[in-house]
Amino acid sequence: QLQPVESGGGLVQPGESLRLSCAASGSTLDLDYYAIGWFRQAPGKEREGISCISNFDKSTIYADSVKGRFTISRDNAKNAVYLQMNSLKPEDTAIYYCAVSPGLGRRCLFRPDEYDYWGQGTQVTVSS
Q1: What pLDDT score does 3 carry?
Q2: CA 120, 121, 123: angle at the middle one, nearest 5?
Q3: CB atoms within 10 A of CB 49
Q4: Are 22 and 82 in contact (CB under 8 A)?
Q5: 100-121 in b/e burial notation, b at 16+ Cβ within 10 A?
Q6: Measured between alpha carbons, how far is 28 from 1 in angstroms, rounded to an integer?
Q7: What is the three-class DSSP state of 55?
Q8: What pLDDT is recorded for position 29?
Q9: How far apart are CA 68 and CA 55, in angstroms?
Q10: Residue 29: how many CB atoms within 10 A of its CB?
Q11: How far is CA 121 from the centre of its chain?
């Protein structure tokens, strides 16, 4: 059973940066074969897709709200996917989730039902 585990969240001030990590706990599966999505959910709001990287890094997509500030990447040696978040804003405050899709392959979509495995989430709070 593939269980994504997120880490790297925390409390930062506006304009600062964080890097979130997503690793496959308890699995020897190579994440490079899967599309990985980052989603977030703020209190009282629906879960929002913010970035995705397809298998073998064929494509990446970003939500307009984070484009130019966030970067998704892989470290195949560590079997991990990262979300580098720069110029953070208070509206970025949310629980951030990593999700794994065996089915998307070379595509990237922000449809939660395309992702079979979800992490427990990591809290990101941006406040002065």
Answers
A1: 87
A2: 145
A3: 21
A4: yes
A5: bbeebeeebbbebebbebbbeb
A6: 10
A7: helix
A8: 79
A9: 22
A10: 15
A11: 9
Residue at token pair 């496959």: 24
pLDDT tens per residue across span 20-40: 999 987 777 788 889 999 999
Strands in the chain per DSSP E:
3-7, 10-12, 18-25, 35-41, 48-53, 60-62, 70-75, 80-85, 94-101, 117-118, 122-126
Whether 5 and 26 have beta carbons less than 8 Å apart is answered as no
The pLDDT assigned to 58 comes to 80
**Which pLDDT belongs to residue 110?**
95
Whole-angstrom Cα Rg for the chain? 13
How do residues 78-118 score in pLDDT, each as one tens digit?
899 999 999 999 999 999 999 999 988 888 999 999 999 99
Closest CA to 127 of 85, 97, 91: 91
Check: CB of residue 17 under 8 Å from CB of residue 84: yes
- For tokens 């990985």, the residue is 36
> In which residue are the tokens 């110029």 written?
87
Q: Of 99, 88, 96, 95, which is closest to residue 127 (Cα–Cα)?
A: 88
Encoded amino acid at 118, one letter: W
